[in-house]
Specification:
Chain lengths: 460, 1032
């Protein structure tokens, strides 16, 4: 008999295919994992993170000088104070890594990177044909299949509903994302909230199956096999839907409740409220094992921001703030910091919620990595010279990096690492042995410097 | 393929191929359910097979070969390991990689015995991998070339098996364009017209699940199955498309001159009417609720409203010492106002004379009260008030400037019935203390209930209407009416949908059902009618019409083809010929060549040739892959590399198009032409005009001392500038300019580049922009010149193109091809040589052995060729590399950007002789950014072997010499024809296709090297028109 957990692990796609369904071709081929799955949460922010904003205030003079000169540096965080905006993670320093010095020039930079920051290619201003490969989140999702395979959440552009996302399941394919908490909730838990929608899809699939089946007689050889593959394809989706409906009862206990202010896309919800609600839905989906990989665009330059401390009544724009243009009498840098603090609050919530949830001999967080990073590098108009990452990882993480501030050698010198090296590290550490993920950096190529493969110092 | 094998086997003497095909046939037999399971089978090697292994294998593969493959213990291996090994043996022996050439060779009979044994063993477990491989394009060359063209097999009856061929990415796009009434607008020179081939959809983002592999060569084969992955994407697409149809297309076009799905209009008539009424009433209420209520309640209205509670704003914070505050600029605040949906009220009020007496505070209070009573959310009002606190004077200024353009909201009562409904509903539902928004929502909810009841009372649509819907959808999506049985099935299904989902969603679901049917995504190619003595039947006329249409285009059959199929005029070879010749001659349809260039907004990217004719050579040569090779602008020497590469690929298309249009000696021209397009859009007249304009400007100013002009001097030439406008220079406002400078500065920038183009005796001026600015160039990609080695300040460009370019010969020396066959920062002689061997010489190269991880050694003082040679010219590597390297070396006279060279730069930091800037100083696009390195002489000599002609084979001086020989080679001609066969037939060729290939070659020769003749020959061949059912 198939248990709920077994089914969730073994199936690569569930109701999501019927109701959201980005292009899941790749995920369909994925096989189930054995044991506890690994989880990855990518949180994209806009407008850069200035490397100095991540520098530790308690650096020794020597370390400070190295950091400012962008020379390699590694210190343990437990001996140090975190920058003000990261203080929300004080209680979790042993899980925290501040990773500086990666470059991302093979990705698109300046204001937007679209798909490219997670795919290591130039996205040609978000044109479909420029998407060269599946983005890193989808590559990881293939390794740790789940009913939804991959979930993308986004506040980009202040949109609502189901809209196009930035992740890519395959070359020339764009993912879709849930753009407000209510939509995310209703779609992820559709089999609980609206089983009729899934049932009606299955009615259609049953009809198609019977209609295709009628053609079987008289077909032979290669065509007969083709027919069988087709019928199996229909049946596999239909069966998955049926199973999802069957387990909807047990999914119900994970159904998150969110405030009515989020109805109809939540036009009157403040930014902290929206973020908190989206986090709640995400955590619920993780706990329900609906997905193991989430990409969350917490903002882009078009995301309207309201209700921040200091700017409670103002509606502020991230783009003007990036140009030091401010709102409500509050200097731009302060509002920018408040935005980052609101992000860190979400990271903290995710960590603490998952730490509270038992799994195996520990908690769900043990198997989780959260990566928080700017989509466009080192400033509001980044050019990919640096691409800082704030990483939270649990004790069973396959990488050896927690509890440290790491600055890697700067671009163009021996030992420098690119975003491609970082993503290769993630893949190699989790079972995909590809030699290198993503496009190469042309300055490194020009200088004939080694730039392929994982970052060995992080490989456990 | 297996069937062909069985057919051939019956009629063949014992030749090499016969044994192989028999083996493959066995494999196929076991792939299907019902075949032997293999369980309980005991593996034994006996008799002649044991003898074969003893005689030819154990020398190298027995227990004495530690660490290597052993074949003497097959019986001892567990099943998965043994099957894996048997597969590897089968491939090695089948492809004649084993025994090694230098060892004793088995005769054909012995080889057949072993292959039969291997295929039998593998068949027991359905485990053979060879059959699948042989269907792939990259294994096409394994059918013996000499035999194919020997004439020995002319009598074999050719055919293709009955099959369904999964549609391509292009056909998928075309189908949706047709279904969704899509319009593709195409720029061509000065013209803009409607065409085909776009992958963009109006208001819709569709994922294409049928993307073709990105390989070079024939990419679209008939051996793909529809999988759950495809189906998953199709599910999403079908949902979106069905909504687009019912929510956008039907309301917009349902009642037009050619109504779009009129049955849907009828089915949703009542619901749509209700929606329209509701929308009308909502708009009216939202615009005029205050007045409506005042009209109904008079002076009592105010007393029914809730008590006004103003929002509270925190005082603006005081700045600390040294802190700076830069207020967000006006464009930001006006944008915010709009996003907060406050712009209408703010601008209306500020521009209305009736309220001109309000000062800023009073104005804010006025707005706030309106928003409050309308029931807007407190936070929204708060954000608006915070904005108004800082920006009212600015908004007042905007309203003052734009007053006349701000459209007033005029009270225009609805029809009497609607007005009465509004009045009745408000009176019925309004309660004391309701905000206006509460009143509106209550009224809307009540009307929606009423309308729903009305629809429920009306019942479901009648059967006749449903039948009409089914016919319309079948015709729209499947391009044929349903038969009676289908109609009954769909009718039953749509009733189920309607019961469960209601009318609208039922219609959407039915649309989805049609879109998900296999008929939508498979091309049917089945024989029909009486079988001939070989069991072959002609393709069914409808199937044939699609097969012919999709052979040459991505579109469904055109009108003539449809008529021919329906009227019995697609039943003979001559019928096929007539239609193919007609379609090849059509020039009234422009099609986008490259959807990737379309995505990059490279607008002039179309052809009036049948698109698949041009696409064959694009894919065969693979030069579009240049768009994907990530290159470095610094090494390129200038900026805008991307635009230049787009142009380069487009100009490669243009030269192919030019040669195909002439249709004379097509292969020889493609391989051997010395003429190319370089920064040219194919329209000589337009190019000449553009050049003449620049020449006129130069002639006028060259002796005026323009370099020292100030404004007074420039003023004197205003009349000329009016006659010959220069970019961003307004003769009447000379000082205006743009972000790059004022008019005088821009004039001098332009003149600098104009002079550079003509001051060295050049006869014409290439018409790239006058200076490098923002925005679009006159014609994108002026830096394309750099790929060809032309300096932009001394280039003797010509408007009459294609033009002769020195040191180039044919497509293999076109920079686009060279980039496509190069690494990011280096050339790739191996890949270039492999192309020539496989694509032009019909040769084979084994897969890279799994254990090989060869690296070209780093040595900063040696050329790439020298380093590659030391890695590959060892005994073990050379047996494969000798088929590639000597051909690929000849291309070393071009670098990885395709630039001709006689010296190779040793691009290592320690070899830099002169460092150049990393960015163009002052956007001066005449500057070259390339650092100068130490160099070594290029050795581009190579060796051509494999044409079968003594006069051609031998040492070659370089790629130009190589191309000249290849252009004269019969083997090359035949190899291209083999690839064309695969492209148009969607499969690899067999010996039974020998006559088809020979006929195609003869057609080419007899028609002065016409590729059209090759296509006609292939599409009227037995291989194409005859079908046979596959067997188990």
């Amino acid at each position: 008999m198939t248990s709920r957990r077994h089914f969730l692990k073994a199936s690569a796609l569930g109701a999501g295919a019927m109701t959201l369904a980005p292009s899941f071709s790749q995920l369909f081929a994925a096989t189930g994992t054995v044991g506890e799955p690994k989880r990855f949460i990518f949180i994209r922010k806009s407008s850069g993170i200035r490397p100095l904003e991540l520098a530790l205030p308690s650096f020794s003079e020597k370390d400070k000088a190295l950091d400012e000169k962008k020379e390699a540096l590694e210190v343990d965080l437990d001996q140090h104070e975190l920058p003000n905006w990261l203080r929300g993670l004080d209680d979790h320093k042993e899980n925290l890594t501040i990773l500086q010095g990666l470059s991302a020039k093979m990705s698109e930079n300046v204001h937007y990177s679209f798909s490219s920051v997670m795919g290591c290619f130039k996205s040609n201003r978000n044109t479909l044909s420029a998407i060269k490969r599946a983005t890193i989140d989808f590559e990881l999702a293939k390794l740790f299949p789940s009913p939804f395979g991959h979930v993308e959440l986004s506040f980009a552009g202040g949109r609502t509903g189901i809209v196009s996302g930035y992740s890519a399941p395959a070359p020339q394919t764009r993912n879709y994302c849930y753009a407000d908490p209510e939509t995310a909730r209703s779609e992820l838990f559709k089999s609980v909230l609206n089983p009729e929608a899934v049932t009606s899809d299955n009615d259609m699939l049953s009809f198609l199956r019977s209609k295709e089946g009628l053609k079987e007689s008289g077909i032979a050889g290669r065509e007969k096999r083709r027919q069988e593959v087709h019928l199996q394809s229909i049946e596999s989706i239909r069966e998955r839907n049926e199973k999802l409906i069957e387990i909807s009862g047990s999914l119900a206990k994970f159904l998150p409740e969110i405030d009515p202010v989020h109805a109809d896309g939540g036009p009157n919800a403040s930014t902290p409220e929206k973020q908190a609600a989206m986090t709640k839905v995400m955590v619920s989906a993780l706990k329900a094992n609906l997905t193991n990989v989430v990409t969350y665009t917490i903002d882009d330059l078009g995301t309207p921001i309201t209700g921040l401390p200091g700017n409670e009544a103002d509606r502020v724009g991230i783009h003007p703030l990036g140009h030091d243009e401010a709102f409500g009498g509050v200097p731009a840098w302060k509002t920018r910091e408040q935005i980052r603090i609101s992000h860190v609050n979400q990271i903290k919530t995710i960590v603490e919620e998952l730490k509270k949830t038992p799994e195996g001999d520990g908690t769900m967080f043990d198997n989780t990595m959260i990566m928080y990073f700017p989509e466009n590098g080192e400033t509001h108009h980044g050019i990919g010279l640096e691409s800082p990452f704030v990483i939270m990882s649990g004790r069973k993480c396959n990488l050896n990096m927690a509890g440290r501030y790491v600055r890697l050698p700067v671009l163009g010198v021996e030992g420098h690492k690119t975003l491609g090296n970082w993503y290769t590290t993630l893949l190699n550490a989790h079972g995909n042995s590809m030699e290198h993920y993503g496009d190469l950096d042309l300055e490194m190529s020009r200088k004939k410097l080694d730039q392929t493969g994982p970052i060995k110092q992080f490989m456990a | 393929m297996s069937v062909c094998g069985n057919e051939i086997q019956k009629s063949l003497p014992n030749v090499r191929f016969r044994g192989f095909l028999f083996s493959i046939g066995m494999v196929v037999w076991t792939l299907f359910p019902g075949a032997l399971s293999g369980s309980g089978h005991r593996f034994e090697v006996q008799g002649p097979v044991a003898g074969f292994l003893e005689n030819y294998c154990y020398d190298c593969h027995d227990e004495t070969q530690k660490g290597d493959i052993r074949l003497d213990n097959l019986a001892a291996l567990d099943n998965p390991k043994r099957l894996d090994l048997l597969n590897r043996i089968q491939e090695q022996v089948y492809f004649r990689h084993m025994p090694p050439k230098k060892k004793d060779q088995p005769d054909e009979k012995e080889r057949k015995i072993l292959l039969d044994f291997l295929s039998g063993e593998l068949a027991k477990y359905g485990a053979s991998t060879l059959e699948g491989k042989l269907q792939k394009a990259e294994f096409g060359n394994y059918v013996d070339h000499e035999k194919l063209f020997s004439g020995e097999y002319l009598d074999l009856p050719a055919f293709t098996t009955d099959r369904r061929w999964l549609i391509s990415e292009f056909i998928y796009n075309a189908k949706f364009q047709r279904i969704l009434n899509g319009r593709t607008m195409i720029n061509h020179g000065k013209k803009r017209s409607e065409g085909k081939g776009s992958k963009r959809f109006d208001k819709l983002d569709i994922s294409n699940p049928f993307l073709l592999p990105k390989t070079i060569g024939v990419r679209y084969y008939a051996n793909e199955d529809l999988t759950a992955g495809h189906l998953s994407s199709m599910l999403t697409n079908s949902q979106k498309v069905s909504q687009q149809i019912t929510e956008y297309l039907v309301p917009r076009h349902g009642k037009g001159r050619t109504p779009y799905l009129p049955s849907v209009v009828e089915i949703l008539k009542m619901e749509d009417a209700h929606k329209e009424t509701l929308a009308l009433r909502r708009d009216f209420l939202e615009d005029h609720i205050e007045r409506i209520c005042e009209d109904i309640y008079g002076s009592k209205n105010e007393s029914l409203l809730p008590k006004f509670v103003p929002v509270v704003l925190k005082p603006l914070p005081e700045l600390k010492d040294g802190e700076k505050y830069k207020r967000a600029p006006m464009n930001v605040s006006t944008g915010m106002l709009k996003k907060l949906e406050a712009d209408r009220l703010v601008y209306h009020t500020l521009s209305d004379p009736e309220y001109s007496h309000l000062d800023d505070n009073e104005f804010r209070g006025f707005c706030e009260r309106i928003w409050f009573f309308r029931g807007h959310h407190k936070r929204t009002i708060q954000s608006r008030m915070a904005l108004l606190r800082e920006y009212v004077p600015d908004f007042r200024e905007i309203a003052g400037k734009n007053g006349k353009r701000i459209k007033k909201v005029v009270y225009d009562p609805l029809e009497d019935d609607d007005m009465e409904a509004v009045r009745t509903a408000i009176l019925k539902h309004r309660k004391r203390g309701d905000f206006y928004s509460d009143i509106i929502e209550k009224c809307m909810a009540a009307w929606e209930l009423d309308f729903q009841k009305e629809r429920d009372d009306a019942g479901p649509p009648g059967e006749e209407l449903f039948r009409q819907l089914i016919t319309e959808l079948s015709t729209l999506i499947l391009e044929r009416p349903p038969n009676g049985e289908e109609s009954a099935q769909y009718l039953q299904q749509v009733k189920i949908y309607t019961d469960k989902l209601g009318r609208r969603k039922a219609v959407q679901k039915l649309i989805q059902t049609f879109l998900l049917s296999s008929e939508f995504v498979y091309r049917n190619e089945f024989g029909i009618g009486e079988a001939d003595e070989h069991g072959r039947r002609m393709m069914a006329p409808r199937d044939a019409s699609y097969a012919l249409a999709y052979a040459l285009t991505d579109q469904s059959p055109d009108e003539e083809l449809v008529v021919a199929a329906q009227s019995g005029k697609l039943n003979t070879r001559e019928d096929y010929r007539r239609e193919v010749e007609r379609m090849l001659a059509r020039r009234d349809v422009r099609t986008i060549i490259d959807p990737i260039l379309e995505d990059k907004n490279y607008a002039d990217n179309s052809t009036d040739l049948p698109i698949r004719e041009l696409r064959f050579f694009r894919e065969f040569f693979g030069y579009p892959k240049a768009l994907e090779v990530f290159k470095d602008e610094k090494r390129f020497g200038s900026d805008r590399l991307d635009q230049s590469t787009n142009r380069l690929v487009n100009e490669a298309d243009r030269i192919v198009e030019f040669i195909l249009e002439k249709d004379k000696n097509v292969f020889e021209e493609l391989i051997g032409t010395e003429k190319f397009y370089v920064y040219h859009d194919g329209d000589n007249e337009r190019m000449r005009e553009a050049s003449e304009k620049i020449k006129r400007i130069y002639a006028y100013f060259k002796d005026t001392g323009w370099e020292d002009f100030g404004y007074p001097e420039l003023e004197k030439h205003k009349e000329f500038l009016r006659k010959e406008p220069m970019r961003s220079i307004n003769p009447d406002k000379l000082k205006s300019g743009n972000r790059q400078g004022d008019g005088l500065k821009l004039f001098k920038k332009s003149m600098t580049t104009i002079a550079a183009r003509l001051d060295k005796g050049q006869k014409h001026a290439p018409p790239f922009d006058l200076y490098r600015g923002y925005g679009t160039d006159f014609m994108w990609g002026g830096n394309v010149a750099k790929f060809w080695g032309y300096r932009k300040d001394s280039w003797d460009w010509t408007p009459e193109q294609p033009m002769k370019v020195s040191n180039r010969k044919g497509m293999l020396t076109h920079p686009a091809w060279l980039i496509a066959h190069a690494f990011n920062t280096e050339t790739d002689p191996v890949r270039r040589g492999k192309f020539v061997r496989e694509k032009l010489l019909a040769g084979t190269i084994p897969d890279i052995p799994i254990a090989v991880d060869a690296q070209i050694p780093e040595d900063h003082q040696r050329t790439l060729r020298s380093r590659l040679a030391s890695a590959t010219e060892t005994n073990y590597c050379w047996k494969c590399h000798e088929r590639m390297n000597p051909l690929g070396y000849s291309f070393e006279c071009y670098d990885d950007f395709g630039r001709f060279r006689v010296q190779e730069s040793l691009e290592y930091p320690e070899n830099v002789i002169e460092k150049k800037p990393d960015k163009l100083p002052g956007r001066n696009h005449l500057v070259d950014l390339r650092d100068i390195y130490k160099t070594l002489p290029v050795d581009a000599s190579g060796f051509l072997a494999g044409t079968g002609e003594v006069a051609l084979d031998g040492r070659v001086e370089n790629a130009v010499d190589l191309a000249g020989r290849l252009a004269r080679s019969r083997r090359v001609r035949q190899s291209i024809i083999r690839h064309a066969f695969r492209y148009f037939l969607g499969r690899n060729e067999f010996l039974s296709d020998s006559k088809t290939l020979i006929d195609a070659e003869n057609a080419y020769l007899e028609n002065d090297g016409s590729f059209d003749a090759v296509i006609v020959s292939l599409l009227t061949s037995d291989s194409f028109i005859y079908r046979k059912p596959p067997t188990n």
